[in-house]
UniProtKB/TrEMBL annotation:
Name of the featured protein: WW domain-containing oxidoreductase
InterPro entries hit by this protein: NAD(P)-bd_dom_sf, SDR_fam, WW_dom, WW_dom_sf, YAP1
Main location: other
Keyword entries, A-Z: Apoptosis, Cell junction, Cytoplasm, Golgi apparatus, Lysosome, Nucleus, Tight junction, Wnt signaling pathway
SUPFAM superfamilies: NAD(P)-binding Rossmann-fold domains, WW domain
Compartments where found: Cell junction, Tight junction; Cytoplasm; Golgi apparatus; Lysosome
Gene3D superfamilies referenced in this protein's UniProt entry, alphabetically: 2.20.70.10, NAD(P)-binding Rossmann-like Domain (3.40.50.720)
Organism, scientific name: Balaenoptera acutorostrata (Common minke whale)
Keyword Transmembrane: no
Domain WW intervals: 22-47, 63-88
Length: 175
């Protein structure tokens, strides 16, 4: 191993490659865990990436999962008449904890209130929006109303508030 390190061959660009002494294994129900043979311990997270993984999908055609007399899971390839303790689906694992994008990643300065509330139902909800006669307040009030909320417009000028209500109600005729 020292010779490989000296030659620069132990370096890899694959983040999923396991360090020396580590092995990737699976449980009966499809979870991936990692065995560290050097320290004789196991863990659920990948030693380099920290991600948890699971097996996606069924075994390939002709394969069967069995348990030996010691309770260890092994896999039988009936077509090629071979068996192995290595799950053939390990090449197709998926992250168990995909990172959810933060609000800043999903939305930017050009995102509208309609895009943010898409697919949400505010029926039966009462919402108070300040400054609802213009700008961001108006767009927020309009979008919440179009999504079923009972919106109370809190404005300083009653005339402009009534105009905003008329404009919001005018949107209903186009739906």
């Amino acid at each position: 191993m020292a010779a490989l390190r000296y030659a620069g061959l132990d370096d890899t660009d694959s983040e999923d490659e396991l360090p020396p002494g580590w092995e990737q294994r699976t449980t009966k129900d499809g979870w991936v865990y990692y065995a560290n043979h050097t320290e004789e311990k196991t863990q659920w997270e990948h030693p380099k990436t920290g991600k948890r993984k699971r097996i996606a999908g069924d075994l390939p055609y002709g394969w069967e999962q069995e348990t030996d007399e010691n309770g260890q899971v092994f896999f039988v390839d009936h077509i090629n008449k071979r068996s192995t303790y290595l799950d053939p689906r390990l090449a197709f694992t998926v992250d168990d904890n995909p990172t959810k994008p933060t609000t800043r990643q999903r939305y930017d300065s050009s995102t509208t209130a309609m895009e943010i509330l898409q697919g949400r139902d505010f029926s039966g909800k009462v919402v108070v929006v300040t400054g609802a006669n213009s700008g961001i307040g108006f767009e927020t009030a309009k979008t919440l109303a179009l999504h079923g909320a009972h919106v109370i417009l809190a404005c300083r000028n009653m005339t402009r508030a009534n105009e905003a209500v008329s404009r919001i109600l005018g949107e209903w005729s186009f739906l």
